[in-house]
Amino acid sequence: MQTRTNPFIVMAGLYLTVGLAAVMGTLAVESGLIESLPRLRWVLIHLVTIGGLTQAVFGVLPSLVTATDASARRPADGRRWLQWLALNAGYPLLLLGMATGATVVAVTGGTIVLGALGLLLSTVFRTTGRAPDRRISRYYRLAPWFLVVGILAAFGMLLGIHGPGGYFGSLEAHVHANVWGFLALIVAGALLTLLPALLEAELRYPRLVSVTFWGLTIGVVGLVAGPWLGRHEVTILGLGSYVVGTGALLANVVGTYRSSDRSYTRRIALVLGAYLWLAFPVPWAPFVLLFPDAVPAGAIEIAAINGLIFGWMLQLAMAFLPVVAAASARPVADRGVVEAVTAVAAEHPQPSWIQVGSVNLGMLALWLTPVPVLGGLTASTTLAGFALIAVAWALFVVSLWRSIASPTSEGAKRRGAMRDTA
After folding, report:
1. What values do phi and psi take at 309, rounded to 5?
2. Are 61 and 74 in contact (CB under 8 A)?
3. DSSP letter at 141?
4. Residue 254: inside a domain, yes or no?
5. How open is the CA angle 126-129-132, to the nearest 5 degrees?
6. How far apart are CA 37 and CA 83, in angstroms?
7. Closest listed residue to residue 11, CA positions, set 54, 42, 44, 46
8. Is residue 277 a contact partner of residue 215, using CB atoms and an 8 Å limit?
9. Count of CB atoms within 10 A of residue 376's CB?
10. What transmembrane ranges does the database entry give (predicted)?
11. 1 within a domain of the structure (yes/no)
């Protein structure tokens, strides 16, 4: 049967591959082999966020919205290609502007990305009216608006326009809106949509779906508004609400897994590891906000952002993106993304325990860098952390390109020996 490769997923694979090269560059800098490269850290972060995960979200969000609704009309190809062109014209300009410090170039790229996002919002709102489960579709309707807020906060940083919280308030608002808002809401909706079908079990606590939605939504509003306004009490209240929403989500993830036959263990391990590093900064946040001189606030903030990018995002991508890449290339006649992902997951090998172990050990090493007693070992722990993450990242990129290149045959060739059902 003829298949179609999702162009957004191809670009996600490309940028994640370039991101792996940037990690190798980071290792070269940390080991002293080359001079420090300007803005390498932020370029690396955006290769994962906008370059990898946002491309993937653009590629699969309309399909997630309709989920198993076979009667829903697919978005027009012309509109989708326009989204792809806008996103992939704007993002390189944004990346170039960031790397060179050219504000006009970065703002131009960000504006074009904002236009692509507007087109995506139009597609989502046209589609969600036909979505079979409105409780889940509202995650997808709301999430892109937080990316709008995140881009506007980025414009503020580039143009020197800030709220009462100043530059660093705009920076935190930007990160929280993009990651804890945009991506986290879509991930939550996707997990609640896909896991029951993947695990062949009913969602364990369906009443918690609304708790998750409102906890995350109210929480991220506080996490965006608090730093921008310079009001720590708003940030802390938002953080508390976000913890409630995340706890409700994880209760459904763990409960649904426990009530299933407990297959796909390594995928679930990556999901739980991802949320460990998303939640890990929470106990530190009040100290950083209220007593910044009593703790290494700067080092903790760097470790927290690393956790969001390499601990949370990368693990979720490793768990599902190769399967989604293969599923998105299934023939158009297939019933929907849920059935396609379920079928592909049964054929394709799971991520290896090496990936699970190396990415989490790498994140542990990066989180050790703020510990004062290890101050003399900061360079070594940073180097070890990125080296371990690079191992997991490399295995992930190979698996992703295999899925993109051969979406229907890779699993069929290897499933007998490779599938883990323990």
Report:
1. -80, -55
2. no
3. H
4. yes
5. 130
6. 32
7. 54
8. no
9. 7
10. 7-28, 40-61, 81-99, 105-127, 139-159, 179-199, 211-230, 236-257, 269-291, 303-325, 359-377, 383-405
11. no
CATH number of residue 80's parent domain: 1.20.210.10
The pLDDT assigned to 355 comes to 96
Token pair of 162, please?
């800030």
Q: What CA–CA distance (Å, rounded) separates 231 from 222?
A: 10
Structure tokens at 109: 């790229």
Number of domain units in the chain: 1
What is the structure's pLDDT at 2?
40
The answer to whether the CB of 322 falls within 8 A of the CB of 348 is yes
Identify the pLDDT of residue 419.
42
Q: What is the pLDDT of residue 122?
A: 87
Query: pLDDT at position 36, please?
Result: 75
Q: Is residue 420 part of a domain?
A: no
Q: Which two tokens stand for residue 358?
A: 């190396």
Kindly report, residue by residue over 361-372, the tens digit of the pLDDT: 999 999 988 876
Q: Does the residue 72 lie in any domain? A: yes
pLDDT beneath 70, residues of the chain: 1-4, 67-78, 128-134, 330-335, 372-376, 407-422
Which residues make Cβ contacts (< 8 Å) with residue 155, sequence separation at least 6?
A: 107, 110, 161
Using only C-alpha atoms, what is the Rg of the chain? 20
Q: What is the per-residue pLDDT for 30?
A: 82
Q: Which of 361, 371, 373 lies closest to 315, judged by CA?
A: 361
Parent domain of 68: 7-414
